[in-house]
């Protein structure tokens, strides 16, 4: 099998965001730092989520993971919708690349974007509070799987949307609420019972909780449960994406 | 083996406003090494047919093969054999001309393609723009890049979908010289165009589409020979009498009428004189492909 094709598409997708890094990397890092400064300043000393973990320390992994997820989604979705609307997707449609190659390249580049932004956010915010690394493998596993899910979800949104405002709706009404309500800024144990139960239906909650477990060694639910949920979500979203790509959904009429 | 084979291709578009039959039972072969023209008025189904060939659209019925490879079942081999120059002037604003061509090579699994890329850039007059961003190029230059992109993997079959629409004379010359050279070197060329003089000059064989059906499929020379071989051409500022206007081909001040023999010439002139039409620069000449085209389109309209 010739890997040159999928690798080229992957490299092109990475180059695409790298060339406009100010907008695709620096801007989300700045946003995360602003969240940290504001929430950290207001809530530090008032809330202790886990024993011995200050609020700012608690917030840092949450913000990193939120940035990873949002940027992984932004990468594949914006690339695809831009190519569709400007028409240059035709250059890809006439190639022999298979639906699996499309999937691997777009999702792979989304994971890279998510991890690069996540590292950027971490590198800047880590100086604001003491940080621990109890189980770094959890950190890596949840970051990669979470970014993979979002990259695939971005592909689905990019295939489905025909206009930029449809894409914005998907982002604002699906992705943003689910990430904000995933326990980035708080522990779900502090929530009223109804919201506590609802949070457990949100797969993003398991991504953030498992990711945070890697840092502090404590979490709202077992990281193994989180891994199971996140892994299952990855398989389900990937299967749907591959099916849509193979059928030529909104690509080949 | 045929370079391109269309077998009973049909395409139906269904929308809320109803169904449109874009192609009806289209069958023909383009032989290897041919320079083949696909002609027809706007909306005849040319671009739909090309899109099915390229895998951008799926046929509702029938099948299409490129060098024996089915464009759906064996799409990878079919697309490797095919180079498509799309009609729309599209580009990726993130990259330079050379990056664009390297990326396109990579999609086809071609590595270390810089020698061929340089040859394409030189042949299409793009060498000076190689490192310019796509956004900085003029429309004509972008069109050249589209051609280079289609050829970057050295496809044996080249499809040009109205490549000279809105293109200046110089680029047209460059493009045709380049494509003619590729055709001489053994590449099959399938061309759709609105410029009938181009089709007449370049294409050995022609298919004409109307309302999604093939209404003519002939060698260009045979098409030209089979038609009323002479036309009466003149300039006038006056309106033609209605029965002449109905069969005339009018371009600005120039009117052109087919005439079978001397008696027909006399009849036309008599009618013009009696209607008081003042005629300048009168001449009798050979019919060209445009006359053939109009004749076929009119008779197809009568038939359907």
Structural notes for this entry:
The complex is a heterodimer of chains A (253) and B (304). By secondary structure, chain A is mostly helical. Chain A has one domain (16-42, 54-247). Chain A is 75% helix and 0% strand. Chain A has helices spanning 4-19, 21-43, 55-86, 90-93, 99-125, 136-160, 164-180, 193-199, 203-216, 223-247. The longest helix of chain A is centred in the N-terminal third of the chain and has 32 residues, at 55-86. The mean pLDDT of chain A is 92. By secondary structure, chain B is of the alpha/beta class. Chain B folds into 3 domains: 1-81 and 155-168 and 179-226, Rossmann fold, CATH 3.40.50.300; 94-152; 228-286. Chain B has helices at residues 46-54, 75-80, 97-107, 114-123, 139-151, 169-184, 196-202, 220-226, 242-245, 262-274, 289-303, and strands at residues 2-15, 18-31, 35-39, 61-66, 69-70, 82-85, 157-161, 188-192, 205-210, 213-219, 230-235, 249-251, 254-258, 280-286. In chain B, the strands form 3 sheets. Chain B has a 6-stranded mixed beta sheet, with helices on both faces. A 4-stranded antiparallel beta sheet of chain B has the order 2-1-4-5. In chain B, α3 runs parallel beside α5. The longest helix of chain B is centred in the middle third of the chain and has 16 residues, at 169-184. The two termini of chain B are 33 Å apart. The chains are: A mainly alpha (253), B alpha/beta (304). The interface between A and B is medium-sized, with 28 and 31 residues.
Chain-wise SSE layout:
The complex is a heterodimer of chains A (253) and B (304).
Chain A: H1 4-19, H2 21-43, H3 55-86, H4 90-93, H5 99-125, H6 136-160, H7 164-180, H8 193-199, H9 203-216, H10 223-247
Chain B: E1 2-15, E2 18-31, E3 35-39, H1 46-54, E4 61-66, E5 69-70, H2 75-80, E6 82-85, H3 97-107, H4 114-123, H5 139-151, E7 157-161, H6 169-184, E8 188-192, H7 196-202, E9 205-210, E10 213-219, H8 220-226, E11 230-235, H9 242-245, E12 249-251, E13 254-258, H10 262-274, E14 280-286, H11 289-303
Helix pairs in contact in B: 3-5
